[in-house]
Specification:
Layout lengths: L4 E14 L2 E14 L3 E5 L6 H8 L7 E6 L2 E2 L5 H11 E5 L10 H6 L9 H14 L15 H13 L5 E5 L7 H17 L3 E6 L10 E6 L2 E5 L1
Parallel strand pairs: 3-8, 3-9, 6-7, 7-8
Antiparallel strand pairs: 1-2, 1-4, 4-5, 9-10
Helix pairs in contact: 4-5, 5-6
């Protein structure tokens, strides 16, 4: 049985206005991400990679074209509907980690559960399980400044998984890490992709990461150059 599309873009254009100038960040992008894919989006700086990821995660709307996430046409959703889609379906990992410095690793991982009705015991249990999954059970009471860059990114990955999303989107997740640590982070994400059946889309300019993906999307000047 063929795998279903979990993300689908049809002729997506995204324009930004800079003063009197209109910049086309995406110029008619069409692609499909299947459930269970580990997709790598590669391309030089300014090629539209982050814009593409934001649209895939319903953080932004396209200027024109169609976007379907987990079967939902995002053009039919209002801002509240988009927020609920993101909370239930998508986890995000960023280059800058975005951890709260005054909270320890466990508290940072639990943070996205704050608006939910899940009781505290269940929140702690789930966060501990995820920190164990990313190999940080022995560091869960440490604050971000007491963790290495790789450990902080592992906390961020655990936080992205706390709502049990179907999709995890990572924007340059190795950008602030040395080469060895960066590869360890991508290997950790690939393991989660295989064992937890999560769909990953990883944006990078580092071509050495391509070996981890089962789908490679090359972007240049807001256009798809090729998909392998």
């Amino acid at each position: 049985m063929p795998k279903q599309n979990i993300i689908e873009l049809k002729d997506v254009v995204k324009e930004y206005r800079l003063g009197k100038t209109i910049v086309r960040a995406l110029q008619g992008v069409s692609l499909e991400i299947k459930r269970g894919d580990f997709a790598i989006v590669a391309g030089p700086s300014g090629s539209g990679k982050s814009t593409l990821l934001h649209i895939m995660g319903a953080l932004d709307r396209p200027t024109s074209g169609k976007v379907f996430i987990a079967g939902k046409d995002i053009s039919l959703l209002d801002d509240w509907g988009l927020a609920m889609l993101r909370r239930k379906t998508v986890g995000f990992v960023f280059q800058t980690f975005n951890l709260v410095p005054t909270l320890n690793a466990l508290e940072n991982v639990m943070l996205p559960l704050e608006p939910t009705s899940i009781d505290d015991i269940e929140k702690i249990k789930r966060a501990k399980e995820l920190l164990k999954l990313v190999g940080l059970e022995h560091r869960m009471l440490h604050k971000p400044m007491e963790l290495s860059g790789g450990e902080r990114q592992r906390v961020a990955i655990a936080r992205a998984l706390i709502n049990n999303p179907e999709i995890v989107l990572a924007d340059e997740p190795t950008g602030n890490l040395d080469t060895k640590t960066g590869l360890q982070i991508v290997e950790a994400m690939r393991k989660l992709n295989i064992e937890e059946k999560k769909t990953f889309v990883v944006v990078t300019h580092d071509l050495s990461l391509l070996k981890y993906g089962n789908k490679h999307i090359y972007l240049r000047d807001g256009l798809i150059e090729k998909i392998r």
